[in-house]
């Protein structure tokens, strides 16, 4: 494609309101334009990349046995009433009223719609399992859209939904999707981790998030430096590895007021659930992780409350837990606010009414990895995908049942699997750029080759360029030819912003049939004979991601 | 793909509310499902066809030099205020309010948005022309959605917008798009006509609609039986071919009341524009065409009024026109209601104050074709595409200007070009079906081959089918294998509904390696040896559309 005829509105200056590298460079390189807060157009260059990502997704989803369909963005409110989400979803769900006064949601997600589509057809175990996906525009009215495509209000998503007659069947598809996602993100060139995530108290059990590693990411990932282990910070299990013998026990000592001591301090955190009060003792140097307590107690509500009661003589309707880290202590110090007294030489096992020990703290960098291999490190991640065992939440609410082999009606067991397509583009930008602009991986580059004619008014340069352009197009390369009558500085700056993997520069030595070749990554230019260019480009591409 | 694992919810009965063949068969064949009035899901089979249509569109648009982008469906109301269309568009424009109370239109069309995108960049004649397109979901809140995908509220459209610095440049792109559209619809296998259409009084000049021929169509097309001439009924010019000598003139005769006479009757139709009153005389046997009068008078408002004034002595502020058909009359009869008098032997030229003759009537079947070749016939059409010279309507309203070679700011000259993708699918259905279901053209069939195992529990049948399935997949065919444990009647009925071009039936003679082959179109089955099947299928496909 001739650059003079293409719509690539590059920008010299960094837009003031673009905070992340991906947002800045996608705007500056003419890949996207903002139409409203959180609402973007994909310009020709950007949309070429989106389509390449979509093709990879389609190929891997089809390979994994999923079938593509396309559902509407307009979803009747009645369906969302069936699951109660019309009221629960809040202002993030975009809503509209048609000319007859009927309400619709603009799809933020598709569980209700897909369940309504299949519920009459998937009426027998013989028709299961079934896995359906779509690549579609989604809507979410984010309160504070930011980072460009990373948190937009209209965005492209791949969402898939599977239907099963057993937990084993769901498990099989779940891991098939997990594998497909790994392949998709690998083919996109992304550095990512599949991390254990929290499924919430309601809904299914297993869930993994796919996190692209990037400083700008809003999630912290705990990963092993020696294995594939990775988990969301809140989900990473802490090993109960302390096998040390307890020290000799001293008698409990009671001192007025809050006192410093040379012993391990423990603290108490109190919570209320819907039905009871609980206290958790934990080392003061550790951080309490509510999610773990929620999961242990199987509750969706946990409200922190002040621990303003006697920690030493908790009454019988307060359950007392302690973190595993407290188990082996015998010389600890605890301030009991209720009495305004500090206890020294406290042995939790001896002195507190602990009913059970468990893992209640956040993992820390340097902790051993829960899989026993290596040490935990932290990284920031951008969530680009998620696989999720939904169970029967939606099928029960919407009465989507199948008949099993005995002719008994049972709710369909469901899984759902999402990929943020526009987010994936942002994540790739965060990982593949330098100060000058984008450095696209080969698999996604809008053009493989950027042919730059330094001075197209010079006949030698123009003719050689034209000939090379045609030659590479005939060889099947996607070539962007900068034939514009612009200053060389403008051309080279634009070429950096656009970020094609290989640049071929036709300049002064065109009359000698000599051109320069460089990769976008290291920028070092080498002279080469025009005749040997196809071979040189081919060789060079093999060295690139 | 194994049919047992595919989501193809066929229906035995014709849905009561589906009026057209395309609507009925798309539902019955499991291609689409309705989610709300005018809102549909494309199920896996239907979406496969949509994607094939989209691929053809992309290839031809790219070949014609257009660039693909993707704009959002959410369009800020401010843009629609700039052109005034927020108020003009009426209830067909879907609107929504975000959580901050800002209004958006859900794109029914994209002129405002694209103009806002390019107006800063296309600032010089050097960057012109530019042609940008997208394939996108569009929204139109139709009062009465009907015929399934034919008049939906959420639908897929290809819309393109071109920008120019001269009428000649626009003309060139206009005809390039015209040619691309012909290629697209030909590749889709459609019988269609590109017809001259009315551009309306406001906006551009040239416009053609692409009409797929179908009885269900809402538009009447006038076409020549001997040339490519075709026009919307309202636009078809009537040739002024009457070269007959006037008959000898008799004196005008005046008779009281309304009288019958053996002469050609003429009538008068009166209209008011914003500024004047006009009368048009026309043969009583012809039908007045307001659109032609509007265009002759260059007005967008024309209100029919009673002709309750003296037709013989029209006062000077009433302009009097006559249709060409009146020009050669000398023996006509006219009833003047104002006087309650019938005039006989009236010679319009002599007796009426006619200032000009022109073409003011609708063309009729049997009229000579306006291009001088053949005779006019009528047909019904479904509008599947339109090319349109917009001129400067939007660029002027939105201040989208470029600098010409002299450095003078001028409004961009625009064209726009639409294809209804989901409508095209419906039009194909209308043209390619029989009572049993769809008969897809090769270029769009969801699968080329339908392999039907009559009894999959029979080992010979299953093994031979499995072997043939693999063989054809390896040969690059798209094969649907009906491996379901259903009754043969169900299988054959479904196969008719689904409509793959070629069917291979593996039945009782599987043990002898003999199968049956048939085309969906003529259904006649022929036995063939399984070993020669690839060759037979190949031959058969060559005979099909």
From TrEMBL, chains A, B:
Pfam families: HGTP_anticodon, tRNA-synt_2b. The keyword Cell membrane does not apply. InterPro entries: aa-tRNA-synt_IIb (IPR002314), aa-tRNA-synth_II (IPR006195), aa-tRNA-synth_II/BPL/LPL (IPR045864), Anticodon-bd (IPR004154), Anticodon-bd_dom_sf (IPR036621), Pro-tRNA-ligase_IIa (IPR002316), Pro-tRNA-synth_IIa_bac-type (IPR004500), Pro-tRNA-Synthase_IIa_type1 (IPR023717). CDD domains: ProRS_anticodon_short, ProRS_core_prok. It catalyses: tRNA(Pro) + L-proline + ATP = L-prolyl-tRNA(Pro) + AMP + diphosphate. It is found in: Cytoplasm. The keyword Membrane does not apply. Residues 38-441 form the Aminoacyl-transfer RNA synthetases class-II family profile domain. Homodimer. Consists of three domains: the N-terminal catalytic domain, the editing domain and the C-terminal anticodon-binding domain. Catalyzes the attachment of proline to tRNA(Pro) in a two-step reaction: proline is first activated by ATP to form Pro-AMP and then transferred to the acceptor end of tRNA(Pro). As ProRS can inadvertently accommodate and process non-cognate amino acids such as alanine and cysteine, to avoid such errors it has two additional distinct editing activities against alanine. One activity is designated as 'pretransfer' editing and involves the tRNA(Pro)-independent hydrolysis of activated Ala-AMP. Belongs to the class-II aminoacyl-tRNA synthetase family. ProS type 1 subfamily. This is Proline--tRNA ligase. The gene is proS.
């Amino acid at each position: 494609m001739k650059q003079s005829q293409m719509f690539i509105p590059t920008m010299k200056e960094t837009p003031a309101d673009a905070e992340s590298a991906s947002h800045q460079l996608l705007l500056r390189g003419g890949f996207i334009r903002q139409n409203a807060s959180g609402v973007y157009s994909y310009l020709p260059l950007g949309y070429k990349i989106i389509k390449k990502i979509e093709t990879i997704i389609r190929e891997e989803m089809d390979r994994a046995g999923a079938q593509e369909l396309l559902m509407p963005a307009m979803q009747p409110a009645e369906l969302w009433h069936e699951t109660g989400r019309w009221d629960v979803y809040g202002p993030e769900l975009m809503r509209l009223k048609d000319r007859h006064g009927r309400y619709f949601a603009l799809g933020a997600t598709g569980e209700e719609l897909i369940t309504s589509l299949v519920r009459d057809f998937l009426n027998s175990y013989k028709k299961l399992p079934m896995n359906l996906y779509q690549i579609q525009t989604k809507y979410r009215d984010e309160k504070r859209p930011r980072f460009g495509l990373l948190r937009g209000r209209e965005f492209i998503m791949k969402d898939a939904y599977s239907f099963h007659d057993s937990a084993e069947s769901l498990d099989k598809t779940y891991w098939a999707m997990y594998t497909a996602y790994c392949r998709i993100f690998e083919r996109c060139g992304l550095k990512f981790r599949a991390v254990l995530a929290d499924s919430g108290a309601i809904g299914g059990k297993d869930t993994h998030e796919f996190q692209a590693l990037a400083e700008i990411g809003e999630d912290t990932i705990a990963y092993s430096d020696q294995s594939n282990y990775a988990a969301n910070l809140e989900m990473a299990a802490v090993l109960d590895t302390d096998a040390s013998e307890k020290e000799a026990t001293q008698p409990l000592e009671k001192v007025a007021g809050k006192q410093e001591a040379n012993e391990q301090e423990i603290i108490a955190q109190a919570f209320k659930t819907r039905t009871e009060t609980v206290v958790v003792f934990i080392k003061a140097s550790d951080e309490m992780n509510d999610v773990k307590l929620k999961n242990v107690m199987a509750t969706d509500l946990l409200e922190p409350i002040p621990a303003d009661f006697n920690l030493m003589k908790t009454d019988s309707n307060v359950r007392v837990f302690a973190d595993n880290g407290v188990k082996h202590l015998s010389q600890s110090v605890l301030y009991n606010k209720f009495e305004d007294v500090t206890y020294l030489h406290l042995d939790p096992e001896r002195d507190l009414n602990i009913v059970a020990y468990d893992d209640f703290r956040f993992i820390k960098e340097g902790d051993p990895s829960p899989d026993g291999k290596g040490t935990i490190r932290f990284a920031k991640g951008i969530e680009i995908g998620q696989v999720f065992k939904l169970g029967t939440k939606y099928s029960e609410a919407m009465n989507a049942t199948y008949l099993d082999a005995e002719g008994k009606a049972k709710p369909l067991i469901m899984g759902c699997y999402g990929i943020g397509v526009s987010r994936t583009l942002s994540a790739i930008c965060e990982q593949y750029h330098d100060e000058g602009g984008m450095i696209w991986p080969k698999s996604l580059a809008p053009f493989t080759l950027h042919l730059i004619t330094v001075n197209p008014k010079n006949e030698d340069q123009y003719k050689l360029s034209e000939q090379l352009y045609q030659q590479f197009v005939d060889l099947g390369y996607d070539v962007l030819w900068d034939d514009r009558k612009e200053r060389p500085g403008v051309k080279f700056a634009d070429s950096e912003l656009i970020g094609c993997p290989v640049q071929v520069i036709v300049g002064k030595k065109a009359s000698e049939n000599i051109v320069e070749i460089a990769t976008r990554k290291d920028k070092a230019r080498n002279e080469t004979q025009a005749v040997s260019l196809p071979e040189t480009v081919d060789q060079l591409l093999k060295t690139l991601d």
